[in-house]
Design brief:
The protein is of the alpha/beta class. Helices cover 34% and strands 20% of the residues. A hairpin with a 5-residue loop joins strand 2 and strand 3. The longest helix is centred in the N-terminal third of the chain and has 14 residues. Keywords: Sugar transport, Transport.
């Protein structure tokens, strides 16, 4: 069973690895979002309304990115998040997501990085930090090759820590064992 990460100190919002899933098997984008939201709710990181808010936002503002290895960065408004963090999932097979900024565009996503923000002011910094990581083909390939949740958590934590300035405080890794699956 997963446990929620401790809340950050006052004025120190960052994205700790909350939930990590290797080879998540879902038929479509809604399935990916629903599965990750359920894991996040299990650990107390999000409220009961998070899953629906997440799916509604993704329908209105798709987050699929045509990065060298296609990724998605779905997220919900801070009002639905209890503890800031980051959910990362590699997918068992590519899943079509709507392409960000392109009407009716589709991207076959291999990796999902879901920022959980409680402060809207941190939104842009967190997304910029994630974009740096997700644009790095070698880094994403390394994450995709993780054989299980533990290896994915270790690799993601190392990649996040290597971002310039620790991603200027926007992204960090949590203590070992936080958010591990049962």
């Amino acid at each position: 069973m997963s446990t929620a990460p401790p809340p950050p100190a006052h004025g120190e919002e960052h994205l700790a690895l909350t939930v990590v899933r290797a080879h998540l098997d879902a038929a479509d984008a809604e399935g990916v979002l629903t599965a990750l939201a359920a894991h996040l709710q299990e650990v107390g990181a999000v409220g009961e309304d998070f899953a629906e808010a997440l799916r509604a936002r993704e329908r209105e503002y798709p987050t699929g990115l045509p990065t060298p290895i296609p990724t998605a960065i779905p997220h919900a408004d801070p009002a639905h998040v209890r503890v800031p963090g980051l959910a990362v999932a590699t997918l068992a097979r590519p899943v079509p997501f709507g392409e960000m900024g392109v009407r009716d565009g589709r991207v076959d996503v291999h990796l999902v990085a879901m920022p959980l923000l409680t402060d809207a002011r941190e939104h842009l910094a967190a997304l910029q930090a994630l974009m740096g990581l997700l644009s790095d083909e070698a880094a994403v390939r390394d994450l995709l090759e993780a054989p299980d949740d533990a290896a994915l958590r270790e690799r993601a934590a190392a990649r996040l820590a290597a971002l310039p300035g620790g991603a200027t405080g926007a992204v960090s890794s949590a203590a070992d064992g936080v958010g591990e699956s049962a």
